[in-house]
Amino acid sequence: MKVHVEDVSFAYGREPVVSGVSLDLPEGGITVVIGPSGSGKSTLLQLLCGLLHPAQGKILFDDEDVTGVPTERRDVGVVFQSYALFPHLSVRENIAFGLKTGRRRFSMRSSRRRPSRRHLEERVWDAAALLSLERLLDRRPAQLSGGEQQRVALARAVAPRPSLLLLDEPLSALDARLRRAVRTELAALLAKLGTTTFYVTHDQEEAMLLADHLVVLDHGRVVQAGPPLDLYRRPATPFVASFLGEANLVEIEARPAIATPGRVETPFGSLSLPEAKSRGWLLVRPEDFTDDPCGAMATVLDARGMGPHDRVVLQLEGGTELLAHFPPETAPEPGSKVRVGVRQRRPHFLNGGE
Amino acid sequence: MRRVGIAATVVLALVLVTPIAITATGAFSRAEWYGQRSEGAGVETTSALFHYVLDLWSGALLRSVQVVVAVVPLALLLGAPAAWAFRRRPFPGSRLLESAALVPLAVPGVALAFSLIQTAGRAPRFALLVAGHLAYTLPLVVKSVTNAVETFDPCLERVARSLGAGPWETARRVTLPLLGPALVLSSLLVFAVSWGEFNVSFLLATPLLQTFPSALYLTYTTNSFPVAAAATLVFLLPVVPALIAIQLLGGEEFHRGLPT
């Protein structure tokens, strides 16, 4: 199912939470919305599932206007951060819940009615098998671990085979180690399901791993949307640059290099930055630095081996501090001087400095 | 700490149970022991005594049953949805209203009874009586149901909606089962309070509309002690199981599987 959100706004009382958001969720793809807390991402999810209704704007599911349609007729599946498993029901009954409701779909697109008893058992079993919950069907939610609860919540959401899956920070209740394992499983599962998915998170790695389409939200507005790597490489604003991974933003005046149009003089030599027009920021990711005898002179302030890379803090002669990732065990001693350059075509220029 | 607990239990037992125990023994004793005249030949034996009491106050007993049968469902029907709304759909002034709902607990029955007559004196007495009882019992329902609503995740209701359950189906399959313990508990409390309510009932009573507690008062003032004691036992008969049930339901067993 294609989802189109058009100029949607919502406010709690007088406080605007979502302001003029327009989005398209690609059919069958995973759209990840990322933003700091309070950016309106969970509110946007509730607007999509119909638990809140926008003050302004439209929401279309496959070209049908569902803006005023209540949740129970929207054909969505939701997983909340708290999982919200029904504590009075067994795992089996939790998964079967959505198969037994009197849902009358908004459109006749999906010809789903209440399945027969045998059919219902099959569907519960399928959903349970999909998430390896077969052995837990008779347990109560209180008897499950956090990871198991998360899987039950997901099984319950997908059992009725919704056209749109909405996940609200589904991994944030898990501890870091488990989260990394579940993240990979979840990516595989979502790919297998092929359901249009809207996924809310504040975790950048989760976003990069899962997203087909990444949307960065800040103060209730879409700051940038596109393929995740594009956003990482060519962020539209310093906010996006520093929210998606670690960013060195060096403020410079984009003076065209003599006789070479499209090239700009930077502390790291002249770089090809056709997008540079005025004063702005040069974005260099920590992994983009190279050992370059013609590069900028920098003092090593701190160096630490992280395992996969060495984390080095450098200071340019002007006082600008930079974070650089060096290959493992190649970091220079703190206090020493190095010359650093940047990889060609990697840096990006953000126009708009003061 | 343990000694304090034991001491407190003993004091409680002495204060609460002793007077009732003495009253109870009265029902099985002879009136003469209390220096009172026996009430005729019919009440010489204990069973005759109970027959006499039931005969004398069957009207009041019936009234009390009628009141309780009206008050318990009404208190739940009014109190539980209000309590749910206070927490799930708060509106401007709902906090104030919630606090106001507790006020009747502190209003003397005399004041409440007379203000009921003042405001709706033409209404049927039975309706006034039920209204008076509701004033005392609604706060109990509101309080225990709001507490219960607070303990469960509002996302449960949202998930139910997203799974295709409309508002009524969500109430039936999610909200009510989760509020079940609180609803049973508050209906028992309402029953116990309404069954024993004296002030309002006594002041609103007419000769034909007397609840059992006000009949008890008359018994104590006019009949001999064994008769009054027997009437008290009859009164206590349904209350004791209700109180025991409240105790049992408060236990852990009842809340197993519910969110903590």
Sequence-ordered SSE layout with sheet pairings:
The complex is a heterodimer of chains A (354) and B (260).
Chain A: E1 3-12, E2 15-25, E3 30-34, H1 41-49, E4 56-61, E5 64-65, E6 76-79, H2 91-100, H3 117-130, H4 146-158, E7 164-168, H5 176-193, E8 196-201, H6 204-210, E9 213-218, E10 221-226, H7 228-233, H8 238-243, E11 248-253, E12 263-266, E13 269-272, E14 279-284, E15 289-305, E16 310-316, E17 321-326, E18 337-342, E19 348-351
Parallel strand pairs in A: 3-8, 3-9, 6-7, 7-8
Antiparallel strand pairs in A: 1-2, 1-4, 4-5, 9-10, 11-14, 12-13, 14-19, 15-16, 15-18, 16-17
Chain B: H1 2-27, H2 46-88, H3 94-100, H4 109-120, H5 125-151, H6 155-162, H7 167-196, H8 199-204, H9 212-222, H10 225-249, H11 252-255
Helix pairs in contact in B: 1-10, 2-5, 2-7, 2-9, 2-10, 4-5, 5-7, 6-7, 7-10, 9-10
Keyword list:
heterodimer; A: alpha+beta; six-stranded mixed sheet; four-stranded antiparallel sheet; B: 260 residues; mainly alpha; 11 helices; 77% helix; 0% strand
Notes on the structure:
The complex is a heterodimer of chains A (354) and B (260). Chain A has 354 residues and is an alpha+beta fold. Chain A has 8 helices and 19 strands. Chain A has helices at 41-49, 91-100, 117-130, 146-158, 176-193, 204-210, 228-233, 238-243, and strands at 3-12, 15-25, 30-34, 56-61, 64-65, 76-79, 164-168, 196-201, 213-218, 221-226, 248-253, 263-266, 269-272, 279-284, 289-305, 310-316, 321-326, 337-342, 348-351. Chain A has a 6-stranded mixed beta sheet, sandwiched between helices. In chain A, strands 2-1-4-5 form a 4-stranded antiparallel beta sheet, covered by helices on one side. Chain A has a 4-stranded antiparallel beta sheet with strand order 17-16-15-18, with no helix packed on it. In chain A, a hairpin with a 4-residue loop joins strand 15 and strand 16. In chain A, helix 2 (91-100) crosses helix 3 (117-130), helix 2 packs parallel to helix 4 and helix 3 (117-130) packs across helix 4. The longest helix of chain A has 18 residues, at 176-193. In chain A, 40% of the residues are buried. By secondary structure, chain B is mainly alpha-helical. Helix content of chain B is 77%, strand content 0%. Chain B is built from 11 helices and no strands. The two termini of chain B are 27 Å apart. Residues 256-260 of chain B have low confidence and may be disordered. The A-B interface holds A 46, 49-51, 70-74, 76-78, 80, 82, 84, 86-88, 97-98, 101-103, 140, 142, 156-157, 160, 166 and B 152-153, 155-156, 158-166, 169, 173-174, 177-178, 257-259.
